[in-house]
Every structure is written in structure tokens, then in C-alpha cells.
């Protein structure tokens, strides 16, 4: 916070506290010239106003509130740039990476500052870490049909994966549906865990320069035909002749990396399941500009024990029947 805004907050806050104290003292003083418990002469609908002071309990409550306000502003950050004499803060601010977060945690310890979020994380690790460790010792296929493990896995999914894949895991444009059996990198427990640990980075190049406008139209027609769509046969035939550019990743038959045991994550173009949309315009967009989707790695953020349980949950989404 800049010095100007810090001073602005102080200038607004402290006079308000002083004003509240002055207003309280003023209301405790008799200025009407009427003895206490005597009527002031004001009457409305038969009700007379009597000159009584504030109840003592109410007055003490106001004093206590003011005292607490002064203590709070002195002890905790909030009064401009004042950090508070308790060296407390809710979290480390301005963090942009996991490395920065870890460095900030260590720096806070070295400075003797109490960071609430760091303390809560440490407590959670101490309490729940052993639980995760016990589940991590079991096979993924076993955990995938264990009710307790699935409850934990579901919470991990909602906290870390639902933003992209949706709370029901059915995905959205650009984010795979995890409830079907169409997998870009394989749907076995080992492959799912690999994906969660290390992330995935798509790398489909754009073909505008290589194919030109007409080539893009021809390739679009051929790609649509692979999934049984009605297209212009002449355009599709011309696109098929150029499909060698795509076959290295998608396979000569267009069935994708998984069908040919390739590591590229290239989709199956024959099943009419489309990650970025299956309309002619969406396919043209993919061919012209390429696709470069990124799934983050969770090895460092969640740790291998939590990833192990999350793997079981994701596997179960597309395998509802017990296959053990």
C-alpha cells in the first residue's frame, strides 16, 4: 500500500474513534438543565420524556468496544501500513509461484511472524497426513471402490479439478470429460496418476501456412468424414491425400495416440468426441491455429499421497462397475 493511502486510512479511522468517544461522553452529560429522573416537558401521545442517563451496562459496553478497537488496530495489520505489534498476518501476500510460497513460509519463520494460513496448513498436515499415507499404501483399483477413499478423492477433485472439468467431471470446451472412456493419454490407473503428477501440455501445430485456405477446407472435410459425417466427397478426397501431415500423431486411420500406443495425446478423430467442438468451424479453427492446452502438474502442490487417492477417484468416474 502506498504511503498516501496508508495515511488516508489512518486519517479516516482515528478521528472516527475519537468522535465516538466524544459523542459518548457528551451523551453522559446533562445539558438540559433538568435534574435526573425529572420530566423534560416533552410529551407525545401521553408519553413523557424523562431526563435519564444511559444505562451503566450500556455505557460500559461502549467503552469496552472502543478499548477493543484501539487494541485491535494496534495489535493487527489494518491501520494503513502498520503491521501490528503481534506480528500476525492472515497469509503471505503477493505470492505468484509455489517456490515463492515456500520461501515466504521460511522467511516468516525466520522473522518470527505468525502467518495464520501457514499454521493452519501445518496443523492439517499433522492431522490428516497419516490418513493420506495409509490410503496411499493401497492399490488404486482397491481405493477406487472404497467409500471412504472416494469421499476424500471427491473433495480433492472439487478443490483442485472442478474449476476446469466441472463439479460433475463432465468437462467443457477444451477440458476433457472424465466420465467417459475416451482418454487422450490412457485411462489406466498408472496413466491417470502420471497425468495428475506431471501434468499435460498439448502441442498441435497450426497448419495454415502449410495447407493454405483451400487445404484447410479439404482437411476439415476429411476429418469430418472420419467420424461418419456427410461431407463433400471431392474435398474429403483431397484432404485425405494431405492427411500424412496429421498421421504421425493421430495415426493413418485417425484413431489417435492411445490406439497406436503413442505419447502425444492426439485425439481419436473417428469417434465423434471433440474436445474443442466438432463443427466444421471449430475443426477449421483447430487446424488454422493449433491447440496448446495445458493441464497443471499436482505433484508439488498436492503431493504423491493425495494424488494417489485422487487417481482412484478419477478412475472410478469412468469405471463405475467394480473391476477388481
Automatic annotation (TrEMBL):
It holds the Pfam family Cytochrome_CBB3. InterPro entries: CcoP_N, CcoP_N_sf, Cyt_c-like_dom, Cyt_c-like_dom_sf, Cyt_C_IC, Cyt_c_oxidase_cbb3_su3, Cytochrome_c_Oxidase_Subunit. The keyword Oxidoreductase applies. It comes from the Bacteria. The chain crosses the membrane at residues 7-26, 57-76. Residues 148-227, 234-318 form the Cytochrome c domain. Its cofactor is heme c. The keyword Transport applies. Pathway: Energy metabolism; oxidative phosphorylation. It is found in: Cell inner membrane. GO terms for biological process: oxidative phosphorylation; proton transmembrane transport. Heme c 2 binds at residues 204, 246, 249-250. GO terms for molecular function: electron transfer activity; heme binding; iron ion binding; oxidoreductase activity. Heme c 1 binds at residues 161, 164-165, 295. PROSITE patterns: CYTC. Binds 2 heme C groups per subunit. Its main location: membrane. C-type cytochrome. Part of the cbb3-type cytochrome c oxidase complex. Belongs to the CcoP / FixP family. This is Cbb3-type cytochrome c oxidase subunit. It comes from Arsukibacterium ikkense. The lineage of its organism: Bacteria, Pseudomonadati, Pseudomonadota, Gammaproteobacteria, Chromatiales.
